[in-house]
Specification:
112 residues; alpha+beta; Alpha-Beta Plaits; two-stranded antiparallel ribbon; globular; DUF190 domain-containing protein; N-reg_PII-like_a/b; UPF0166
């Protein structure tokens, strides 16, 4: 699998407790991206954040997990990301999605 040097970064901001068909939304998104042969996806867990509701979500010692913020980053060609967006729309009921152009310097290894 290759990614063009000029690619697109899809960034999805959701909550850890968000669900899609009974399973964690982040898991559903990553598995759908893999099924569609998107080059790569990573889920990052935030220590603190807030969204449109302005409700603070934090990982303090006394509160181990209060719907912590998650960011899912997906990188591939503009065409593959565009094909993925309708699938994402079917899964998500809230959250923030951003797109930006990125320059891919390296993906995987050559010859190994």
């Amino acid at each position: 699998m290759t990614i063009p040097e000029q690619a697109q970064l899809l960034r999805i901001y959701i909550g850890e407790d968000d669900r899609a068909n009974g399973k964690p939304l982040y898991e559903a998104i990553v598995l759908k991206a893999r099924e569609m042969e998107i080059a790569g996806a990573t889920v990052l867990r935030g220590a603190m954040g807030y969204g449109h509701s302005s409700r603070l979500h934090t990982a303090k010692i006394l509160r181990l997990s209060e719907d912590l913020p998650l960011v899912i980053e997906i990188v591939d060609s503009e065409a593959k990301i565009a094909a993925f967006l309708p699938e994402l729309d079917r899964m998500m009921t809230s959250g923030l999605i951003t797109l930006e152009k990125v320059q891919v310097l390296q993906y995987g290894t050559n010859g190994r």
